[in-house]
Amino acid sequence: MGQITLQSVHKSFGPLNIIKDANLDIEDGSFVVFVGPSGCGKTTLLRLIAGLEDVTSGQILIDGRNVVNVPPAKRGLSMVFQSYALYPHMSVRGNIAFGLKMAGMPRPEIDRKVEAAAATLNLTSYLDRKPRELSGGQRQRVAIGRAIVREPKAFLFDEPLSNLDAALRVQMRMEVTRLQKQLATTAIYVTHDQVEAMTMADRIVVLNAGRVEQYGTPLELYDRPVNLFVAGFIGSPKMNFVSGLPASLHGAATIGIRPEHLRVVGDGEGWPGRVSVAEHLGSDTFLYVDAAELGLLTVRGLGEVHLKGGDRVWLSPDPARLHRFDKEGVAIRP
Amino acid sequence: MATQQTQGLARGLLSPAVGLLFVWMIVPLAMTIYFSTLRYSLLDPGAETFIGLDNFRYFLTDPAFLASLLNTLVLVGAVLAITIVLGVPLALLLDQPMIGRNIVRLMVIAPFFVMPTVSALVWKNLLLHPVSGLLAWLSTLVGVTPIDWFNDAPMLAVILIVAWQWLPFATLILLTALQSQDEEQKEAAEMDGAGAFSTFFHLTLPHLARPITVVILIETIFLLTVFAEIFVTTGGGPGLQTTNIAFMIYSQALIQYDVGSASAGGLVAVVIANILAFFLVRIVGRNLET
Ligand SMILES: Nc1ncnc2c1ncn2[C@@H]1O[C@H](COP(=O)(O)OP(=O)(O)O)[C@@H](O)[C@H]1O
Ligand SMILES: [Mg+2]
User: Which one-letter DSSP state was computed for residue A193?
Assistant: First the structure.
């Protein structure tokens, strides 16, 4: 079991209010991603759940029990740190076994569990190496191994893939997701990368300046962002925002159109503009269109679109996929 | 990779400094070697004669030599042990957040800046003196006969003084090392359920292995040549009880006026220091790799 609930959790460092009234319900076995810009309080929130920081007020329940006064080791959670935080003087075996040794588990049982974890993570042939003799990806796996042997109620990951190169990151992304599904253990995963969030999460928590902006499945966030911040943060390339006359025509202060929902249409039908840059990726074409008073609009065309910088185009938004926001930036729902 | 030209330029620019340093070292060494082969008494100037290795034979077979060698080793070993065994907990304490930490740190470091002669005088006259010393006063307060440190336990007294001087050095080096210890590793250990003692033994102590090695190597070099503390307090006595190699060389040269024998002793000391350094590096130097 690993059901985690936050009830009006606040955290201040001195006069600085870092986490403002966080309320969350994390179901057992789900993969939840905290995403938000750098400095918004993701790490702080994770450390509050881990017990490495004390809450200023509010409750954290694990399986229904309030744990705010329970020391980290007793919460039954394990954490994978951004720097991996491997013990440099211990072998891979020693690193993975350390938590079990501290728990006073008998030696044969420790050995069995370490071997099993190492086998799951393809680390068997590295068990006797020191962390410094491993590559970045291997260190990452040792850190994960250290987390899984303790059979925790939940895993906490703090930007675990940010030190890896792009290709390895994609591979580890899949491995982590697969492992989590296989173990069916709750996981909370912190990242600033919305692509990571969208691809890995069952549910995403979007944080901004210490506030939970929205909590929902990736597609909910994509299809029904509750405000301008979420709309702009989720999706790549970023959503286009248009205000002024075209927005008031739809009864909104601002309208948002995702680049993939803007179409290039024939003469005179939509918003006129001029292509300033065209990026041809083969699978997609990104057009950055200078649309006079509407500003710079991004258009994503499927496959090859035969346009180049300087071409005149007309753009038309897909009316069904249009997002409307009021003066405060809150989404208007019909 | 530097080009040929810049390498040549670098060598050209470095050579005066390197040359000066070389001459600086080689001249005294050559003169010491030269003197060590002469019968050279300050009481009988102008009558120097070449006597080969006789000075070395006299020095090494002098009964004072073995005693001094032993005293040297005891002094070095004891001070190393005290400074490290006390330095580690002291550094751990100073690493804790507390009010006035900077001032406390400064005060702990202070003894290192007191010159050996002064600190030896302070210890001799203000602290350890059997009549007017602080310790004597404390002893009489509780009704115990004061210890006459420099007569009854002279070596212990010297060790105390030298350890007091070197403890700040060890503490400082270890404190710096503690401050560089990775915070996330400690938190990982906390999540793994390690208490303060387990964290210390499994993480902190291995982390300190390298700075401890540095402390041992550096202190050894300086402790082999302790002189002022002995000169000021015991004068090597009573008997030979606190005479180390450095003090023995001094007494050869300036008490017995035998420059030849003192030079031979100086060279013997260089050899001993090298032997010791060789073994130290073999034993503890492994920690310095990587
Ligand atoms: N121990 C601390 N003391 C004071 N301020 C802190 C502390 N830890 C974090 N903060 C502040 O809290 C904010 C959020 O930090 P963090 O949770 O690390 O953000 P994120 O992980 O989202 O990038 C930052 O502005 C940071 O400066
Ligand atoms: Mg962070």
Answer: -
Residues 312 through 331 of chain A touching chain B, CB cutoff 8 Å: none
SS3 at position B115: coil
Q: Are A80 and A43 in contact (CB under 8 A)?
A: no
Of the three residues A231, A249, A282, the one that is the final residue of a domain is A231
In a shared domain, residues A74 and A45:
yes
* CA dist., res. B30 & res. B12, Å (int): 26
- Per-residue pLDDT of B203-228, as tens digits, reads 999 999 889 988 988 898 889 888 88
Is residue A54 in contact with ligand 1, taking CB distance under 6 Å? no
Residue of chain A whose alpha carbon sits nearest to that of B183: A85
Domains of chain B in start order, with CATH, are: 56-289 (1.10.3720.10)
Rounded to whole angstroms, what are the CA distances from B49 to A2, B40, B41, B266? 92, 7, 10, 19
Residues A265 and A198 in one domain: no
Q: How does pLDDT run across B220-264, given as a tens digit for each residue? A: 888 988 888 888 888 877 888 888 888 888 887 777 788 888 888
Q: Are residues A45 and A82 in the same domain?
A: yes
Q: Number of CB pairs < 8 Å for A and B?
A: 61
Which CATH number covers residue A31? Answer: 3.40.50.300
Query: Could you give phi then psi for residue B254, rounded to 5 degrees?
Result: -110, -10
Mutate to test the interface with A, among B183, B185, B192, B287 (most CBs of A within 10 A): B192
Is any ligand 1 atom within 6 A of the Cβ of residue A117? no
Work out the average pLDDT over B52-71. Answer: 84
Q: What's the domain range around A266?
A: 238-325
Tokens of B145: 């006969």
Q: How large is the ipTM?
A: 0.84
Ligand nearest to the CA of A207: 1
Distance from Cα A40 to the centre of ligand 2, integer Å: 8
Nearest to A72 among B184, B185, B191 (CB): B191
pLDDT, averaged per 10 consecutive residues of chain A (334 residues), comes to 90 92 92 93 94 92 92 92 91 93 91 92 91 90 92 92 88 91 93 92 94 94 94 92 88 92 82 91 92 89 87 90 91 84
